[in-house]
Amino acid sequence: MTINKTGEGTVSKETQTVQYGDDLEITAMPENGFIFQGWSGDYSYTNSTIILKNIIADQSMTANFVQNTFTKLTLPSEIKIIPGSTINVPVYLEYNSSDNEIRGIDIILLEKNDFLELIDVNLSDGILSAYEKNVNTDLKDIAVYISNSQKITGSGKLMDVIFKVNNKISEPILTSTLEFAEAFFNEDKIPYNHCKLVVNKIFSNRHCICDRRRSSAYR
C-alpha cells in the first residue's frame, strides 16, 4: 500500500505492506494554514479519515493539502486586563467565498499564566443568527454549529469570548498571551493569530493624615 501526500500535512499511516484481504484506516491532518482537499489515487474521497476494505491488490493513495490563504480567525493584537474584572475578547472571522462552506467551527483558547478563566461565549451581535453552541469551560473548548438555514457570506465578528480575570495576579509576571491551541472549520485547520495580554494594575494610594490635638484645661 503506497501512501503519499502533497502540501503541508500529516497522514496517520506510512507506505506499508498489507495482508491480503485486510482493511486499512488512514487519517489526513492538515498543518496550520492548510486545508485538506481530498484523497486521490486509486480511489477519490473527500473525508479526511478513510477505511480501505478488503485490500487484495497494490493500491496508491495521496492526501492532498492546499494552503488556506483566505479564511482565518483573528484576535485583537493586545488587550489590557484588570485583576478581578470580566472581559469580552472579540473573535473575528475573515472569510472568502471561494473556500468551502462553513458548517461548524471548533476552537480551543489557551493562556499560559492562568490569568483567565473561561465563562461563556456571546454570539448575539456577531455575523451568525442561526446556530447552536457548546462551551466546555474546563477544556476551554468552544464549538459552534451553524444552522442549515444560514450561510456565512462575509467577514465580521464571530463572537465575544467572556473571561474572568484572576484576582491574584502578582508581579513580576504582568504579561501573557491568549492564543488558539486549535482552530477548525468543518474538519479543516484554519490560520489564526494570538493576543498579547497586559495587566493594567491600578494602585490606589490612600494617605490618612490624622491631626491629634490635646486639649488642656487651665484652671
UniProtKB/TrEMBL annotation:
Organism listed in the record: Candidatus Magnetoglobus multicellularis str. Araruama
UniProt-recorded name of the protein: Bacterial repeat domain-containing protein
> Per the database record, which ranges form the Bacterial repeat domain?
2-68
A GO MF annotation of the entry reads: carbohydrate binding
- Lineage of this protein's species? Bacteria, Pseudomonadati, Thermodesulfobacteriota, Desulfobacteria, Desulfobacterales
InterPro entries to which the protein is assigned, alphabetical: Bacterial_rp_domain, CBM2/CBM3_carb-bd_dom_sf
